[in-house]
């Protein structure tokens, strides 16, 4: 029995299974479509279009497949990675698609490592193993590696790494460790700006837990993160003559999710990449003025239609936690696909498991309740108010697996501190 537990709790085994599942599903997926389609269609979104512009020497610009000039639509890390792939394997080629998918699979598989290490610190080896196995078989994590050429899988890896690094740095007095923590935050923000909502909370908890209070080290971490972001912010100011610290997209996100035609489940309506009228308006105004106009219109609508806004927010809340379904019970009974039902039930199970995991941590008076719980409690608010897509939740999905593991393993396995 002890040997079986050792095998089941083996991180290399979990990594191998996670990698195998992702490669297997991706292999099956690419057989369902022509290579010509896979060479082009997955890249025809903002990150892929910007990557193509960079790869062809036109700079960080043109998110809509037409020349629209410089952009700050997204932070630069993932489009630059895609641009590097295009430089090596060609723009809109099947080898480029394969390379991009393999990179996503690598990121998603490697997320097992910080998740396991964080889980061991929060609840012991059993919790760590369960959380990592859940991540290995999590359908969203598998599907998003090859269906979506966005930074999603990299964001999940960074989200899990931030939790582990926060738990570690709270025990360190070394300035170098805190600088490294800040550099990790800088890389994260250059990949996914939405994770900024967690920075003051995680850093504040690390300072609170440190002995003595590491205010000077915290300033070092903030300084390192700031220095990582400064070149991008300066570039944006030079290009747009406006301060755009990270990305410019908030105004459009608010408006698409909050206007008279807005729906809980967004299908691409009223977006410049699909709507030629909106695209022409974007080109005529320029990116910054367009985003400012959309933000103004969205906020005005939200203030003047509180009842409908409450309905939209509630619907997006359900959709985000049900994995993309705004009516999960109805969809479960009316969709006969076993795979759809499995994905839906897995997402609902993880949502309930995460909630119960927080309750267990609270009852155990765990010092780790705060840094773990803020992921599902704070991060999703940006999407309750704008748009709700399964990939938007993915940066916090590894932590949902950890909380679910705590719910499954039981409070007696939770240790206030476990060394990795």
What labels would you give this structure?
globular; mainly alpha; 420 residues
Commentary on this structure:
This protein is mostly helical and 420 residues long. It has one domain (2-413). The protein contains 23 helices and no strands. Helix 10 runs parallel beside helix 12. The longest helix is centred in the middle third of the chain and has 26 residues, at 215-240.
Q: How would you summarize this macromolecular structure in one to three sentences?
A:
The protein is mainly alpha-helical and 420 residues long. The protein has helices spanning 2-8, 11-30, 35-40, 46-55, 77-89, 94-110, 112-123, 125-137, 139-147, 152-169, 175-189, 199-209, 215-240, 250-257, 276-285, 287-304, 306-321, 328-334, 338-363, 369-378, 381-384, 390-393, 397-409.
Number of domains: 1
> What fraction, in percent, of the residue positions are helical?
55-70%
Structural class: mainly alpha
Q: Rg from C-alpha positions? A: 22 Å
H-E order: HHHHHHHHHHHHHHHHHHHHHHH
What's the story with the biggest beta sheet?
Answer: none
Integer average pLDDT? 92
List the uncertain runs: 411-419
DSSP strand content: under 5%
Gross geometry: globular
- Total strands: 0
Distance between the termini: 23 Å
Tally of helical segments: 23
Compile the SSE list and pairings:
Elements lengths: L1 H7 L2 H20 L4 H6 L5 H10 L21 H13 L4 H17 L1 H12 L1 H13 L1 H9 L4 H18 L5 H15 L9 H11 L5 H26 L9 H8 L18 H10 L1 H18 L1 H16 L6 H7 L3 H26 L5 H10 L2 H4 L5 H4 L3 H13 L11
């Amino acid at each position: 029995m002890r040997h079986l537990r050792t095998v089941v709790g083996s991180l290399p085994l979990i990594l191998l299974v996670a990698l195998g599942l992702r490669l297997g599903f991706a292999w099956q997926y690419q057989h369902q479509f022509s290579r010509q389609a896979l060479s082009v269609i997955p890249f025809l979104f903002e990150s892929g279009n910007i990557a193509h512009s960079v790869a062809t020497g036109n700079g960080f610009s043109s998110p809509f497949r037409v020349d629209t000039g410089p952009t700050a639509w997204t932070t630069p890390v993932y489009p630059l990675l895609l641009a590097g792939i295009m430089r090596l394997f060609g723009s809109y080629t099947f080898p480029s698609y394969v390379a991009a998918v393999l990179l996503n699979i690598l990121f998603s598989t490697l997320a097992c490592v910080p998740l396991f290490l964080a889980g061991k610190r929060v609840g012991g080896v059993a919790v760590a193993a369960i959380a990592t196995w859940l991540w290995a078989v999590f359908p969203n994590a598998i599907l998003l590696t090859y269906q979506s050429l966005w930074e999603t899988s990299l964001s999940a890896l960074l989200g899990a790494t931030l939790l582990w690094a926060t738990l570690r740095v709270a025990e360190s007095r070394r300035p170098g460790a805190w600088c490294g923590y800040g550099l990790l935050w800088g890389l994260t923000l250059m990949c996914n700006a939405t994770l900024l909502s967690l920075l003051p909370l995680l850093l504040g908890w690390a300072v609170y837990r440190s002995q003595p209070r590491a205010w000077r080290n915290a300033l070092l971490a903030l300084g390192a993160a700031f220095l990582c972001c400064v070149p991008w912010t300066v570039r944006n100011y030079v290009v747009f003559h406006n301060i755009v610290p990270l990305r410019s997209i908030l105004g459009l996100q608010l408006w698409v999710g909050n206007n008279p035609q807005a729906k809980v489940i967004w299908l691409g309506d009223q977006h410049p990449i699909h709507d030629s009228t909106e695209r022409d308006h974007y080109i005529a105004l320029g990116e910054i003025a367009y985003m400012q106009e959309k933000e103004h219109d969205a906020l005005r609508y939200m203030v003047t239609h509180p009842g409908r806004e409450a309905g939209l927010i509630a619907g997006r809340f359900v959709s985000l936690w049900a994995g993309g379904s705004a009516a999960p019970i109805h969809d479960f009974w009316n969709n006969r696909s076993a795979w759809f039902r499995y994905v839906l039930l897995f997402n609902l199970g993880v949502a309930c498991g995460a909630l119960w995991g927080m309750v267990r941590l609270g009852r155990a008076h765990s010092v780790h309740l705060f840094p773990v719980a803020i992921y599902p409690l704070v991060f999703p608010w940006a999407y309750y108010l704008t748009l709700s897509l399964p990939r938007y939740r993915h940066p916090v999905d590894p932590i949902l697996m950890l909380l679910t593991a705590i719910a499954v393993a039981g409070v007696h396995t939770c240790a206030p501190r476990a060394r990795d």
